[in-house]
Amino acid sequence: MSLGDLDYALSRVHARHGSRLTEGDWRHLEASHDLASYLDAARTGALAPWVATLGVRADEHAIERALRMEWRRYVQTVTLWHPSVWQPWLAWLAWLPWLALLAQLARPEAPPLWLLADPVCGPVAPGTQAERRAALERTALAPLAAGLDRAHAPAVLWRRHWLELAPASDSDTQRLQQALLATLARYAEALALASTSDGPRAALASALGRLFRAASGTVVATVCHLGLTGLDLQRLRGGLAYRCLAGGAF
Which of 33, 115, 155, 212 has the most neighbouring CB atoms within 10 Å? Predict the structure, then answer.
């Protein structure tokens, strides 16, 4: 097997998937009462690459900015293992953490300083909404530019383009893709109705875990793995931000 071979790619995905933290690992990590000890614990296992650039003086915005970039790098790495026909579809997942930032740029007011510091949205943020849209159209996020004039939500545009990027595939893969889309739709509906995100996220993690096993021989397994990794990243972000803001006072 070689780089760009689907069997090779899936073997690497399964290996990475097997190294994810268990619930016991998370409980051990979350027993840390301050940012320094939390970072030290995170650097001893599978989360080490995600926190490698973070220090105890990082504020919550620096933490989120670093994690967005680490997510993008991880998706790019996983994407390159796969056959070229699947790469655009997988690579588009790298932009998910920026959808909330783009939604904020759709507002007419001046962007906050933390958003200007973002390496993706910062260069787009100055100026009027029309100027922001024109700037975004010159980037890899051009399919989302209409979201900056509120014609469409960035998330809707992101999903539309992702569906357009999906290559032709066999019937089994198509069936699993439809199951994945249905899972994500149920999550979005539950999230809109829930008072907190905990329940919907737990349900999504369970559903993606089942689908990962069912799709083990197809590229849909890769998307499930990335989805579960994204949920892990959200949990990590919450743990880091809480300790950063609390300053060890809990």
Answer: 212
Cα–Cα distances (Å) from 83 to 25, 73, 78, 149, 171, in that order, read 33, 18, 11, 36, 18
Residue 2's pLDDT band (boundaries 50, 70, 90)? low
DSSP character at residue 226 = H
Would you tell me the crossing angle of helices 6-18 and 220-246 to the nearest 10 degrees? 30
Supply the pLDDT for residue 250.
45
The pLDDT value recorded for residue 76 is: 97
Residue 151's pLDDT is 64
Residues 198/203/206/207 CA torsion (nearest 10 deg): -140
Q: Tell me which residue of 250, 236, 244, 246 sits closest to 42, measured CA to CA.
A: 236
